[in-house]
């Protein structure tokens, strides 16, 4: 049996985190750095990536801000190959980059559909394809895909994102089975409403919308990027989660299970 010596020990390991310049991606990158791992954060806006890298370096690790649009398969391939060559290894990939906005399906333009599906579904595949080759060659690695529960229950108003996240879930299970015998684990993390600027602007831009979201969470609160990042660290840690692959860890305060219809939702019994 493998001894567990520290809460999460990523010392000597290397991770790529897409969308690592903000929100959940930044928290995951920093949680990895706290565990002693080197990290490369990927996104389009250099300034926010550099901020994350600067914060990560405070933990004594090597951190890099890499500007790259995950929709560009060639650029993704070149970046991943370069990171693996620079560090001599690649242990983890977190596919966290996403785009989202609320639109009735009948009003959504083909361009709007494509923008979200290209980032979430195609971008995840390009990154996983490029990183997976290095991981398979080394016989070890962990891929973590950040999805949302509407991947399996759907959600009116976000057909592009729900369909793309559903595709990522199917991709996760497919690759988990394809790669399990070769040392590479692939899992999903499904956060509930998390206080980030991106999600706030895209999904609950008004106080009324925010209250509506809050009312949908049985736990009665939003979560934080840091709380989500703890679950990410667990799934990325091969010593703790080494036998977990193809699964989804849902961190949503019970949101997708819904609230009581026959009671006020605060107690299991009568209203
Ligand atoms: C439970 C929750 C789970 C999930 C949470 C999250 O993901 S939170 C994470 C949230 N974080 C983020 O979302 C951060 C990243 N988000 C982004 O970068 C942008 O929001 C992006 C996804 C639009 C991509 O940007 P870009 O520069 O590549 O794209 P662009 O500006 O060139 O537009 C492309 C197409 O989209 C159209 N369109 C755009 N907005 C709207 C709208 N509101 N309405 C309708 N349509 C809209 C636009 O008209 C155009 O279509 P057209 O005219 O060509 O047919
Ligand atoms: N917050 C929430 O309530 C929930 C979030 N999620 C998921 O969590 C993840 C993180 O979301 P959150 O932190 O809230 O949102 P953010 O908007 O803060 O994060 C999205 C990140 O993706 C990056 N990104 C977007 N498009 C691209 C692209 N084309 N290429 C590279 N990077 C890109 C952005 O950086 P840049 O603009 O610089 O490219 C940004 O850093 C997403 O997968 C989201 O779907 C799931 C459920 C709930």
TrEMBL record:
<comment type="pathway">
    <text>Lipid metabolism.</text>
</comment>
<protein>
    <recommendedName>
        <fullName>Peroxisomal trans-2-enoyl-CoA reductase</fullName>
        <ecNumber>1.3.1.38</ecNumber>
    </recommendedName>
</protein>
<keyword id="KW-0444">Lipid biosynthesis</keyword>
<comment type="subunit">
    <text>Interacts with PEX5, probably required to target it into peroxisomes.</text>
</comment>
<dbReference type="GO" id="GO:0006633">
    <property type="term" value="P:fatty acid biosynthetic process"/>
</dbReference>
<keyword id="KW-0597">Phosphoprotein</keyword>
<keyword id="KW-0560">Oxidoreductase</keyword>
<keyword id="KW-0576">Peroxisome</keyword>
<dbReference type="InterPro" id="IPR036291">
    <property type="entry name" value="NAD(P)-bd_dom_sf"/>
</dbReference>
<dbReference type="Pfam" id="PF13561">
    <property type="entry name" value="adh_short_C2"/>
</dbReference>
<dbReference type="GO" id="GO:0019166">
    <property type="term" value="F:trans-2-enoyl-CoA reductase (NADPH) activity"/>
</dbReference>
<keyword id="KW-0443">Lipid metabolism</keyword>
<dbReference type="InterPro" id="IPR052388">
    <property type="entry name" value="Peroxisomal_t2-enoyl-CoA_red"/>
</dbReference>
<keyword id="KW-0521">NADP</keyword>
<keyword id="KW-0275">Fatty acid biosynthesis</keyword>
<comment type="function">
    <text>Participates in chain elongation of fatty acids. Catalyzes the reduction of trans-2-enoyl-CoAs of varying chain lengths from 6:1 to 16:1, having maximum activity with 10:1 CoA. Has no 2,4-dienoyl-CoA reductase activity.</text>
</comment>
<dbReference type="InterPro" id="IPR002347">
    <property type="entry name" value="SDR_fam"/>
</dbReference>
<keyword id="KW-0276">Fatty acid metabolism</keyword>
